[in-house]
Specification:
Distance between the termini: 33 Å
Bound molecules: tetrahydrodeoxyuridine
CATH class: Alpha Beta
Number of domains: 1
Structural class: alpha+beta
Helix content: 25-40%
Number of strands: 5
Length: about 130
């Protein structure tokens, strides 16, 4: 399967439609292409006990790992509404992505209007924490 940026953004946008976001009203979808070319998606799932909510990226990464994916080749994150620009991964999700990323991993952050920006993990999480 060969997935271009548009395919990945569409998959993240579709996943976002199922976001469970009753507390923040901010919906996020994430889509990953893994090292085997497979697609994995996730959306944010909030909870009445706020800290238990999970991010779209966390869902997509869990799906990737469960399905045998080893590395993130590309990840698209679509979120809104907001006037803050494209939905860049939160701090925790930068570390989650980092676990399965390398210097070639592409991170696409997209807003409601479809405007997007491209980052590397080094852009988003410089001097990151790794265990040996
Ligand atoms: N959220 C994500 O799903 N991913 C991010 O990287 C940023 C934040 C979710 C968490 C919460 O459900 C909502 O967006 C507002 O913070």
């Amino acid at each position: 399967m060969s997935l271009d940026n548009e395919d990945l953004i569409n998959a993240a946008t579709e996943a976002r439609r199922n976001a469970y976001n009753r507390y923040s009203n901010y919906s996020v979808g994430a889509a990953i292409v893994d090292d085997s070319g497979h697609l994995h998606v996730g959306c944010n799932v909030e909870n009445a006990a706020y800290p238990l909510g999970s991010c779209a990226e966390a869902g997509a990464i869990a799906a990737m790992v469960q399905q045998g994916g080893k590395r993130i080749v590309k990840i698209a994150v679509v979120g809104g509404p907001g006037e803050v620009g494209p939905c860049t991964p939160c701090g925790g999700c930068r570390q989650r992505i980092n676990e399965f990323a390398d210097s070639n991993t592409v991170i696409l952050a997209i807003d409601d209007s479809g405007e997007w920006q491209e980052y590397s993990i080094e852009d988003l999480l410089p001097a990151s924490f790794h265990l040996p």
